[in-house]
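The instructor's notes for this session suggest beginning with a concrete chain rather than abstract definitions. Hand out the sequence below and ask the class to guess, before any prediction is shown, which regions might be ordered.
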Amino acid sequence: MYSTVKPLVTISATATDGRNGHTETEDHLVKADLSLPKALGGPGIAGRSTPEHLFAAGYAACFCGAVEFVQRSHKHLDSKPTVKCSVTVGPREAGGLGLIVAMRVENKAIAQAEFEAIVREAHEKICPYSHATRDNVPVTFEVVGA
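After discussion, reveal the predicted structure:
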């Protein structure tokens, strides 16, 4: 089931030569030369990214912003969370490849139970990456508060 989205901003990127090529946003702000990792049968060229690098960085940044948004709504204005997003790729039972996401979200300025509620709200109600992965990609959380 899809929810209607009122467009506010659209970012476009183009990739050439798949996982062994190049990807770049239309505004040239994000650019990455790509290489398929050796673990997936590729050359694993040092200094090159994978789509999973880009997904992990994007999800970490987006989720951190969602947590900050919820923190502000709960009157926590002065502390900043830290989000580490780990993305794993591997074969699926149903065939093809799939992703697994593990998040570590930390803010030791907020009590553990309250911070867990903030992270849950950010995941369930705010972050568009969380909405996109829900019921399709397993996402687990390690939440570290005070």
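Then share the key points. The longest strand covers residues 82-91. The first helix runs from residue 51 to 73.
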